[in-house]
């Protein structure tokens, strides 16, 4: 019986996007988050006495800023070497041979597969053979898996590959291949990388994306870690996920349909925050709050979004373990617009005018020339995918225009109520 650990997409020293730009962000959890998650991986490998570790690409996040990244990694490989644990690595699109120009000597327990052709590495005392090939360039569009050799009888065969398979949401189509391509090789286990979400693609044979070990932004929510595999008499008897992340991202949807007062809103948000904190098992949660529902206090929310946001931040601070990244106000009004615009009042006329207003879908980058110059000077972490100024696709622009109309109408409705 032996065990091995399958990990991928570590992105050592990659910054956590969407946090560092905020003065009140949890700085201690941000600094070195990927390193601390990797330390957890090393501890897990030693504690579980695994025979070897598989790294299926994107160990690094591109070329190093300096040698500190390489020195850190070499030191951690030294810890595994002293524990008698071997490490097998293929490069991915982020650490392709053309991207990472620096290199440092590594301990003898580390084997890096060729990026020019598939290689096979035997571990005779375990009866294991590992097949792999790394990336020579970032944008590998060839089917690398098709060139892997067929399984070798008498061995437990593992394929180590960085691939998008037939495509996964939010991931570029690199080294594409089909599940049939992988199954045709006759391997016992395929250790894949590139997709940052955990997924057991197949159980016969076992094909796994372990996901990344530390979420780096709001689109990488939930638990992150590695896959621990147990093999007995040449048969897989266990495939376990082990959490390694040190800071967890979460999108928290709170339905305010039944909330009629500010206090009831605060209670609903507090309960949601406490749930996310408890689910994270002691980790700090970087949380995006999304308020939804046909809400009696819809107009009040839109009228004072900044004030509400600061009060929600205070709730997060008071319960501890939660940092509020941002708030999305997605509630809708209870009032029936068709009935309102039928009334013979000045406010009804204004509402009808706003509702029928054609704001258009023109790209604001083009309509405001200075904005393009400003965008080019902004740090990358500020230009988030969720900001409509930078995502100017027709769908996003239509959504922005609808939000503007809704905000104006809600403000008018609130004004009417005060009268």
Automatic annotation (TrEMBL):
<feature type="domain" description="Calcineurin-like phosphoesterase">
    <location>
        <begin position="2"/>
        <end position="197"/>
    </location>
</feature>
<dbReference type="Pfam" id="PF00149">
    <property type="entry name" value="Metallophos"/>
</dbReference>
<dbReference type="InterPro" id="IPR004843">
    <property type="entry name" value="Calcineurin-like_PHP"/>
</dbReference>
<dbReference type="InterPro" id="IPR014576">
    <property type="entry name" value="Pesterase_YhaO"/>
</dbReference>
<protein>
    <submittedName>
        <fullName>DNA repair exonuclease SbcCD nuclease subunit</fullName>
    </submittedName>
</protein>
<dbReference type="GO" id="GO:0004527">
    <property type="term" value="F:exonuclease activity"/>
</dbReference>
<dbReference type="InterPro" id="IPR050535">
    <property type="entry name" value="DNA_Repair-Maintenance_Comp"/>
</dbReference>
<keyword id="KW-0540">Nuclease</keyword>
<dbReference type="InterPro" id="IPR029052">
    <property type="entry name" value="Metallo-depent_PP-like"/>
</dbReference>
<dbReference type="InterPro" id="IPR041796">
    <property type="entry name" value="Mre11_N"/>
</dbReference>
<keyword id="KW-0378">Hydrolase</keyword>
<keyword id="KW-0269">Exonuclease</keyword>
């Amino acid at each position: 019986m032996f065990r091995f650990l399958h990990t991928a997409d570590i992105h050592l020293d990659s910054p956590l996007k969407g946090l560092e730009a905020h003065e009140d962000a949890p700085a201690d959890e941000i600094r070195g988050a990927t390193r601390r998650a990797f330390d957890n991986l090393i501890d897990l490998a030693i504690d579980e006495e695994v025979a070897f570790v598989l790294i299926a690409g994107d160990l690094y996040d591109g070329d190093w800023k300096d040698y500190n990244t390489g020195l850190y990694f070499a030191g951690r490989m030294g810890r595994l070497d002293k524990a008698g644990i071997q490490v097998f690595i293929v490069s991915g699109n982020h650490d392709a041979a053309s991207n990472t120009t620096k290199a440092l000597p590594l301990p003898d327990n580390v084997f890096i597969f060729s990026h020019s052709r598939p290689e096979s590495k035997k571990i005779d005392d375990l009866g294991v053979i590992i097949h792999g090939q790394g990336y020579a360039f970032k944008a590998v569009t060839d089917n690398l898996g098709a060139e892997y050799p067929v399984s070798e009888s008498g061995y437990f065969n593992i394929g180590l590959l960085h691939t998008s398979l037939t495509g996964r949401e939010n991931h570029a189509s690199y080294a594409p291949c089909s599940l049939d391509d992988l199954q045709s090789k006759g391997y016992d286990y395929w250790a894949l990388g590139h997709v940052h979400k955990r997924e057991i693609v197949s159980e016969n044979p076992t094909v796994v994306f372990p996901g990344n070990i530390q979420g780096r932004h709001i689109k990488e929510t939930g638990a992150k870690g590695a896959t621990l595999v147990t093999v007995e008499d040449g048969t897989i008897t266990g495939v376990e996920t082990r959490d390694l992340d040190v800071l967890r991202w979460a999108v928290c949807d709170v339905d305010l349909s039944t909330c009629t007062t500010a206090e009831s809103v605060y209670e609903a948000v507090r309960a949601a925050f406490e749930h996310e904190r408890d689910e994270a098992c002691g980790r700090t949660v970087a949380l995006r709050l999304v308020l939804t529902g046909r809400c009696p206090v819809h107009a009040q929310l839109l009228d004072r979004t900044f004030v509400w946001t600061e009060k929600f931040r205070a709730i997060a601070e008071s319960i501890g373990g939660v940092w509020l990244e941002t708030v999305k106000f997605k509630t809708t009004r209870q009032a029936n617009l068709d009935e309102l615009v039928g009334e013979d009042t000045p406010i009804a006329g204004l509402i009808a005018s706003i509702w029928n207003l054609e704001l258009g879908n023109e790209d604001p980058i083009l309509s405001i020339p200075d904005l393009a110059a400003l965008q080019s000077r902004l740090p990358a972490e500020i230009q988030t995918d969720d900001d409509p100024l930078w995502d100017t696709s027709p769908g996003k622009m239509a959504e922005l225009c609808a939000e503007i109309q809704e905000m104006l109408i809600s403000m008018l409705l609130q004004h009417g109520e005060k009268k």
